[in-house]
Design a protein that fits this description.
Elements (H helix, E strand, L loop, with lengths): L1 E8 L8 E9 L2 E11 L4 E2 L4 E2 L6 H31 L4 H13 L3 H14 L3 H17 L12 H13 L4 H20 L26 H9 L6 H15 L5 H5 L6 E2 L2 E5 L6 E5 L2 H9 L20 H18 L10 H12 L4 H8 L4 H9 L3 H12 L2
Antiparallel strand pairs: 1-2, 2-3, 4-5, 6-7, 7-8
């Protein structure tokens, strides 16, 4: 039995219209669909879940009547989908909502991308959602904001998009990242029957070029720890987060941002990697505790690091600020290559390898699913290890 109800959410701003949404409950799973309809609280009857259209303003009366008609159409459409899915057999609330949105997309690409981003965020897959959003914005700029039907996307279009990105100075790996994200979304549209695949990405680059080594050596880590930030107090948190990441086996920025007191248990820091959902356990060494204690008076809402604040919980804006400040720190330390949010993780792996720690232990420490991933990872990090080994061998 599936329950479908129309609900009203009052605006938190005085005199502003609230929003109508549809609540769907099936097999004890609830999903909400926000509609395009807006009205005031006095224009909605919660008991009967109906629009109250008793104004003398003819224009407003027409507006409210359109909402009533629109809601009836939406509900009828949902019940038609329920009937179709019931004839097929078992279904989930998520499937029902996906079918609903597929019908609402009218075959256009940008609303379909936005829906996929929304689903990723609901699953707490913020990093992937962020990549999809960046790709969407880039493709939208290329299209001058004009949407496109999914069945009109072809190889020629994507080749023009690739040329546009190159002409705007976008790096090869960033271009590939955008293309891979759009390809995943396009293939989802194909799976859902919104178009027949034309393989539009077959003539654009979707590989990964080898990048320059991102790791720094132990001397630079030590220099960073010892640096006096008394004249650069606004940079100290960035330094501390970088070192905290290094101390915690290369913990990602998003995972640091989401750490709470509940992650601290019996002398260990236990958390689930946002990327792989793998649970990692890290012993609470004194150096880790010192950084946490340094900020215990300024954190809020049970967080243990002061990344988010009550006025801004936007992960992407905090990440941008973090990387900008790491770049400034790199200038102060006269580093040849700038620090970034990735460098602490790469550095932990490289330094571990230099100290003779096995690939198996490094793999487990970093939360890689297998050693193959770690070997690929390490191979791109430190060519000097191979150079040193060769020098030792040929000197015999």
């Amino acid at each position: 039995m599936t329950s479908v109800k129309i609900k009203f959410r009052k605006s938190t701003i005085k005199n502003k219209e609230g929003v109508l949404y549809i609540q769907i409950i099936h097999s004890r799973e609830t999903k909400l669909i926000t509609t395009r309809f807006r009205l005031h609280s006095f224009e909605w009857d919660n008991r009967s879940s109906t629009v109250v259209a008793n104004t003398i303003d003819s224009e407003r009366m027409s507006y409210l009547q359109n909402i009533k008609d629109g809601l009836e159409l939406e509900i009828r459409q949902i019940y038609d989908l329920i009937s179709m899915l019931e004839r097929r057999g078992d279904y989930t609330t998520k499937e029902l909502v996906e079918y609903y949105f597929n019908n609402s997309f009218n075959g256009y690409f940008f609303p379909f991308i936005k829906y996929q981003i929304k689903e990723l965020k609901s699953e707490n897959r913020t990093k992937t959602a962020s990549i999809y959003e960046t790709a969407r914005r880039s493709f939208s700029r290329f299209r001058y904001g004009e949407d496109i039907r999914i069945d009109k996307i072809d190889s020629a279009l994507m080749q023009r998009y690739e040329t546009y990105l190159k002409n705007n100075g976008v790096s090869q790996n960033s271009i590939s990242c955008y293309m891979r994200a759009l390809r995943v979304i396009y293939n989802l549209a194909v799976q859902k029957g919104l178009t027949i695949s034309k393989n539009p990405f077959k003539d654009v680059y979707t590989g990964i070029d080898k990048t320059t080594k991102r790791a720094v050596n132990q001397d630079i880590i030590s220099k960073l720890i010892r640096f006096d930030f008394s004249e650069y107090s606004h940079l100290q948190l960035a330094r501390d987060l970088f070192i905290f990441s290094f101390y915690t086996r290369g913990m990602s920025f998003v995972d640091m941002a989401n750490l709470k007191q509940s992650n601290l248990k019996n002398g260990y820091l236990i958390y689930s990697r946002s990327k792989t959902k793998q649970v990692l356990t890290i012993k609470m060494e004194k150096c880790i505790e010192e950084i946490i204690d340094r900020y215990k008076e300024v954190v809020f809402d049970d967080y243990i690091l002061p990344i988010y604040n009550p006025l801004n919980r936007d992960y992407n804006s905090h990440l941008r600020t973090y990387n900008k400040r790491l770049k400034r720190i790199s200038e102060l330390l006269n580093l040849e290559k700038p620090l970034s949010s990735y460098v602490s993780r790469h550095s932990w792996a490289t330094i571990a390898l230099r100290k003779g720690i096995s690939v198996q232990v490094i793999s487990e420490g970093m939360g890689h699913e297998n050693e193959k991933t770690t070997r690929i990872y390490l191979a791109s990090l430190d060519q000097s290890l191979i150079d040193d080994a060769n020098a030792q061998i040929i000197s015999l």
